Structure formats: structure tokens, C-alpha cells
């Protein structure tokens, strides 16, 4: 794991394997028992840590995780242009993450992150507490 810090919050680098075995980078803000979990999904061309100022503020009340979608940020190597067939890949990746989590989470996102969150929630409604889009 890699620790990324600034003056507000430390963020830990983690990851998970997508259904096709590619590693997707996941960023974790400091976690505390008893708080709800929020997964943040970024917009096209962005990455999860770009939203750090917003997520730092939310991390006071929630356990925050944010991914770098394949082809973005630290997950750039997870993208394979020859097999990419559209945004369905992102929905599948988020669904794979939800399946690995022990408890339901809030899903939040911007642009494609919002779309991915909606589609993942439709596929696994029992793993989603609500949506922030």
C-alpha cells in the first residue's frame, strides 16, 4: 500500500480485482467503526483523488473509498483498448467491488461515475444504501 498525504487527510492506496482479473485501484480515507461507507466514482478523464477536498470533508462523517476506473489514474494499466466495449465495463467493475464488500454502501458519483453507480445499484440493490449523484 502507498500512503498519499496532504495537510487534511491521509489516503491509503488499495485495490480489488475486476471480473476479468485486472486490478482496479481503490483509495481509502481513514476508517472508523459505526460510520456508513461511501464509494465515490469520478467523471470520465478524472481520477478518484481529484475529489480529495470534497471527500476529505465527507470523511468526517463517512468511511470513504474512491476508485480510479480502469483507464484512469492509477488504474490506467487495467484498460485494454482492444477489448473495451463501452461503459458496461465500468458497471461490471463496480458490481464486482460491491460483491466483495461486507456491508451495503452509499454510492456517489459525477458524470460516468453517477451512471456507473446507478447501473451497479440496479444490479445489486441489496448492496446499496442509496445514491448521491
Describe the structure.
The structure is a single chain. The chain has 133 residues and is of the alpha/beta class. It has one domain (3-132): Alpha/Beta hydrolase fold, catalytic domain (Rossmann fold), CATH 3.40.50.1820. 24% of the residues lie in helices and 29% in strands. The protein is built from three helices and seven strands. It has helices at 52-58, 88-100, 112-123, and strands spanning 3-5, 10-17, 23-28, 37-41, 63-68, 105-109, 128-132. The protein is globular, with a radius of gyration of 14 Å. The mean pLDDT is 91.
Quick recap of the structure?
The protein has 133 residues and is an alpha/beta fold. It contains 3 helices and 7 strands.
Key descriptive features of the protein:
globular; alpha/beta; 7-stranded mixed sheet
CATH architecture: 3-Layer(aba) Sandwich
Outline, from the CA principal axes?
Answer: globular
With helices defined by DSSP (H or I, 4 residues minimum), what is the helix count? 3
- Overall tally of structural domains: 1
Q: What Rg is obtained from the alpha carbons, in whole angstroms?
A: 14 Å
| Main sheet record | 7 strands, mixed
Binned, the helix content reads 10-25%
According to CATH, what is the topology? Rossmann fold
Amino acid at each position: 500500500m502507498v500512503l498519499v498525504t496532504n495537510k487534511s487527510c491521509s489516503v491509503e492506496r488499495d485495490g480489488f480485482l475486476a471480473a476479468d482479473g485486472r486490478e482496479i485501484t481503490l483509495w481509502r480515507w481513514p476508517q472508523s467503526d459505526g460510520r456508513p461507507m461511501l464509494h465515490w466514482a469520478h467523471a470520465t478523464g478524472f481520477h478518484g483523488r481529484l475529489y480529495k477536498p470534497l471527500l476529505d470533508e465527507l470523511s468526517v462523517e463517512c468511511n470513504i473509498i474512491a476508485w480510479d476506473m480502469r483507464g484512469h489514474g492509477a488504474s490506467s494499466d487495467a484498460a485494454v483498448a482492444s477489448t473495451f466495449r463501452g461503459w458496461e465495463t465500468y458497471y461490471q467493475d463496480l458490481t464486482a467491488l460491491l460483491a466483495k464488500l461486507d456491508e451495503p454502501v452509499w454510492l456517489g458519483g459525477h458524470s460516468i461515475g453517477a451512471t456507473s453507480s446507478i447501473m451497479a445499484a440496479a444490479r445489486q440493490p441489496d448492496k446499496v444504501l442509496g445514491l448521491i449523484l
